Each structure stands twice: as structure tokens, then as C-alpha cells.
Amino acid sequence: MTGPRREARTPSPLDFQSEWERAADEAGAHRALSRSIVRSMHSPLPGSGTTDVLRLDDDALVNVLNCVLPRMARWAYDTQEPLIMLRASLACDVTFRYGGKVPMVFNHPEVVLACMPKGLPLVVDIAGGSRQQGIVAIFRASTFAARYGLRDEDLPAEVRDALADEASIGRIASFPLDHRAAALVADTLDTRLHGELRVVQVAGRVAELVAFALDAMWTQPQLRGTALHLRRDLDLAQAAQARLDRDYRRPPRFDELARELGTNQNKLKAVFKEAFGVTMADYCLERRVREAQLLLLEASLTIAQVAERVGYEHQSSFAAAFRDRVGMTPRDYRQHRAPISLPLPAVGARA
Prior knowledge:
- By secondary structure, this protein is α+β, with helices and mostly antiparallel strands.
- Helix content is about 40%, strand content about 25%.
- Helix 4 runs antiparallel to helix 5 and helix 7 crosses helix 8.
- The two termini are about 20 Å apart.
């Protein structure tokens, strides 16, 4: 295999050759693990770890990231056709920019389905010195459903709309990683499989993450775009959601939030429940518990520290709320789930 080379053209995000070459340029070292995987080894310090670029078929490409780049990297792409992106991140600090459009920022653990439209230049900024740990899969939009044997009726309305609109930009849906998805990503990063067996494994894990995201869209509270008849009510519900997403650890009093948004508390509660299917109080509690589930997988944190990070002053209150929601105490939950504490692989380590 020839070494990395700079190309004058701007590649597609599905271009396997260009993707591994640019990763290798950033890393300084690379090697083929099989006919469908190239690994880049990042060094010197503060860079470390690896990036694996995997070609599943001509309509899907996957990056498996477990690295820290020594400096910020900026990669430009030409989206010559509509694409779908799936991100499942344990840690990340990445920004997607489409011209003057509002950028998409990825900087916390989550699973995301997003649209990458046709014809708009894309610039991706990857922060240096920050841990990038997760799985990023890019699919050709026109074959996304058929790839998994899905029909239109198997897809949530948001996905059908996105696949039908070649100009759509941004997130279709995003969800906090629960313990199952987090463990799946962690096991993929830490696998002992190598060669084409790793391709088989990653293809299966990506399919499982696609199923997780689609199922979550069917079963978890999402904005029902046609549920509210007035556009201003939709805007009001979304504004309240954005505020609670930002401050769910220390949520504002709902009467204060209503005044901030220029309405009254009863109106705000009603449109939020209509839009998302849950009350604002339950929404904040669900976010706290999901964040706590992820933090409990970290071996370095005590339960008291987890409680504090998700906004509880007293560990006993946190434990009671967690048990009511999950069905077991935080301590039992941790004992039944292997903690995730992944070291970065040494440069040159075998796949």
C-alpha cells in the first residue's frame, strides 16, 4: 500500500481511500489491517491512540475512533449525494459546518442520526487534545433503508422525511447513550478481533446501533411535528426543551421558565406535554437518570460524585429517584454492569 498523499479534489465522506489517507496524514503512521480496514496510529504526544477506517460496501463507511489528535484537524468534504450519518460517541469534540448554516456540534456522549445534504460544502473541525472515542458511520441515503431490509412503514416519520428531502440538514434525532449502547461501543473499541473478522463485527455493531436509534425514535419522547396546530406552540415547546436540556441538572422553576419564554406556566406545561408526551418534571428526571447510568459505568466516580454531577445535593435522594426509575439502586446497577474505563491503545498495538 502506498503512503498517504494529498489530493487536490475535495473528497466525499464515503471515499475510503481519501478518508484513510487524511487520517494517516494527521497521525503520521498507518497500516492496513485487512483489505477493508486501515488503521492510523496517532503520535507524538499529546496525540495518541488509533483511528480505524472501515469500508463496509460502496455505500457505507465507518470510522472507529479511540484517539487524541495532537492539534486541531480541519477536513473539507464535497457531499455529492445525500448522506445519513450515525454517531455513537463516548467522548467527542467535533463541529460540522455547512457554509453559513448553523453548525452541528458534537461534544457529549450520545447517539445521533443526522442528514448530510447534497451539494453543500462540508467542513469538519476535530479538536486537538480532546479524546475522540466512538463509532461514526456514513451511509448513502438512497440505500439506507434497503441496506437493513426496511420498508417505509418500518421507519419513523422523521427518518422518512429526511430521506425524501435531499436538502435537509442537521440532526434527525439524538439520544443519550444508555448503558447498553455505551457498552456496545466500548466493546467495539476494545475488541480482540482483527482482519476481516473485525469488519464483520463492526458491521453488526453499526446495524445494532441503527436499530437502537430507530427504536428510540418510536418509543422515547420525541417532538410530534403535527401534534400542535400552532407554529408558535411548537416553537414554545422546543424553546422549553432546549432550556431544560441545558439545565436539567439544576432546572429553573417552571413559573420562571414560563415568564422567560413570555407565557404562563399552565400554557407552557400543556404545550410541552402535548409535544413530547411527558411532563417537564419527568423530562428532567429522565435526563438525570440517563446521565447517571452513563456516569455509573465510569470506575473512577463514586456514587456520591455521580449524584452531585446530575444535580442531587443528597445521595439518598438520588438513590431513591434512580431506584424508582431503573428498578435497582445505583450500587446494584454498577455491580451488574462492568465499568467502562478504556485506556488508549499503544501505538503499533495489534488490532
